[in-house]
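Input sequence (404 aa), recorded before submission:
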Amino acid sequence: MTLTDARLAADLAVRAGELLLGLQSASGLIGKELGARGDANSNALLLEQLAAHRPDDAVLSEESVDTAARLTADRVWIIDPLDGTREYGIPGRPDWAVHVALWQRGRGITDAAVSQPALAAVYASDDARAPEVSEPVVLVSDSRPPTFSDAVAAAIGARVVAMGSAGAKAMAVLRGDASAYVHAGGQWEWDSAAPVGVVLAAGLHASRIDGSPLVYNEAHPYLPDLIICRPELADAIVAAIAPPDFSGMSFTHTESLVVDASCDSLYDLVTDIARTGEWSPICRKCWWRDGDGPRVGAWFIGHNEADGRVWETESQVAVAESGREFAWLVGGKFVRWSFQFEAGPHGTRVTESWEFLPEGRAMFHAKYGAQADVQIEMRRSQAHAGIPATLAAIKAIAEREKRL
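Predicted structure, token format:
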């Protein structure tokens, strides 16, 4: 007998969970190695079974290369083979899950299931029910809790509790173990599609943090924020999260540091972009596109990691004056970064500058809507924290290498 889409989602979530429990108990692995193996094995099982049972459907998976084919498909399965990979790798942690959801054109998420294998539980959109009462708890990420979590808790008379896995937090609200789950630290469609499908079917509230709907199967599947809560609490939570006034926000930041090294040697150091990961707190590695080099118009790619996100950017060199300045534009027009070098009596004054350009701000407003200023403020804060750390690291490297 052919399973309904909801029953197939539940069956696959359970089977993937059983695979993960078996791997956890028998592989001898822990930590990142166990997490990586779990991600890969669970993904392989889900893809194989979806191909067998729904061969004409497209799939968007955290663990597979995305393709544009899903954008023209009428049915797209959105899966997270292991939500809470870090927690899964820690012995005794139950807050990890498997997500399986079906998006249908014109209808959104229609069928979904979330399994929590460590709790021997599965929650599906065809049988989920909202709790009659809920604990006065607001759940947040244990790795990147939102800045407004205390304000939300105060607004609804609750306390804040940290937990891993978006699926685990959402299902805790479904069980009544918490009244709300709020998030604004960055997520992707596969993080929330199945949990949202389940809780909406149960009659709970799910939305962006400004109260707008969650939209899936977008060309860029980044969906950074989320509210899941009892419906009667939604208005109070959205009001508590209302963004502060950013009208006086500065879009530039500059700091300097004197380094006991020559202008030329420092220019050579920072333009050796393969070494960027030695001093940048966010950009872990860089490489020239098409074997290019430090000249105006050249492009390079940066691999970045911050706040649980991993992403790549392409940047174009705007200034390349040996011994004087090296500057680049992220995306060719969105953000300008630069290093300037000025010789002095005690060494070289190195100045690093950051500017969020008008084109970048316009792009963020188009992408993030009402939360654009919050997202820009996050980038500004990263620049404020990152520039002094970068300059200190460059100073240590340059002065050490001078002594060699």
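Checked by second reader. The CA atoms of residues 180 and 229 lie 4 Å apart.
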